[in-house]
Amino acid sequence: MYKPPPLRYYTLGVRKVAFKGIPKGGTVGRLSRRRMLRTVGLGGLGLAVTSAIGRNETKGDDTMPASAIKPQPFALPPLPYKSLEPVIDDATLALHHDKHHAAYVAGANKALDELAKARQSGDMALVQHWERSLAFHGSGCILHSLYWASMWPSGRGKPSDGLAGAIAASFESQEKMLAQFAAATKAVEASGWGLLAWDPALQRLVILTVEKHQDLTLWGVAPILACDVWEHAYYLKYQNKRPDYVDAWTKIIDWDGTSKRFEAAAK
Ligand code: FE
Q: How many CA atoms lie within 13 A of 42 on its CB side?
């Protein structure tokens, strides 16, 4: 019987910021694992990440030298599998991960570097540009890391009892949840994402669609499943048939990983 390798760190594209890498009761900088998991969201994680970075940079001490600023905190996580054929062709997978995601990593680190320089020099003339760049590239890093973790060759497992219960309470059934997820994701205008997320305030799962991934978020939710519907995710194989890609994609969901993210977020 095929035994998959151990679940890799869910890195979220940020060095040393990993769900599995944060021990229970542990911290990332001064950010507790519990708070990290509760604040993860498109912007929520962005807030968590930038908050952690900001804390590392200052630690309440405005005189901390620039050399103490953690350089290049965003990183490209390795893919946890070699292929997702036939649903996603190997050429698309390689380009998507090695070029597109890598560009987000470079852009997010560049934005952080430029913001650090602005603080050092006191010249804030371009701060709006670099904040926007950080939001765009940082969100791209976070969502792509979740996207890779949302899939497994031929799919894997099934929702845990906890996730199945939450799906039933929020959407009546897994079938209805996936029908809404697929329909919503197919309807994303231009480029974007379909997300399944836990909302800790509502104590329920929600499906969100993302068009400009740096905007229109629901702050504080914890995305646990993501489907990328930017054209670079499917166009080589599916061309303009996004619905075919989304329907096929729902067959390769990593339910084991999604269940683990749900259990962590809903604690
Ligand atoms: Fe993408």
A: 24
> How many Å lie between the centroid of ligand 1 and the Cα of residue 192?
8
97 φ, ψ (degrees, to nearest 5)? -75, -50
pLDDT in tens, 223-256: 889 898 989 999 999 999 999 999 999 999 999 9
CB neighbour list of residue 73: distance below 8 Å, 6 or more residues apart: 14, 15, 49, 53, 109, 112
Q: Is the preceding peptide bond at 5 cis, omega within 30 degrees of 0?
A: no
Say if residue 196 is in the same domain as residue 250: yes
Residue 203 Cα to ligand 1 middle (Å): 29
C-alpha 250 to ligand 1 mean position (Å): 17
**Is residue 46 predicted with pLDDT exceeding 70?**
no
| Distance of CA 153 from the midpoint of ligand 1 (Å) | 18
* Residue 49 lies inside a defined structural domain of this protein: yes
Look at residues 119, 149, 179 and tell me which one is the last residue of a structural domain.
Answer: 149
- 73-91: per-residue pLDDT in tens? 899 999 999 999 999 999 9
Domain, as residue range, for 200: 161-265
As for how many domains the chain has, the answer is: 2
With 80 as the cut, is the pLDDT of residue 214 above it?
no
Say how many residues make up the chain.
267
Q: Which residue, 121, 149, 177, sits at the end of a domain?
A: 149
What would the two tokens of residue 120 be? 């050092």
User: For the domain that residue 249 is a member of, what is the CATH number?
Assistant: 3.55.40.20
Whole-number Å distance, alpha carbon 35 to ligand 1 midpoint, is 27
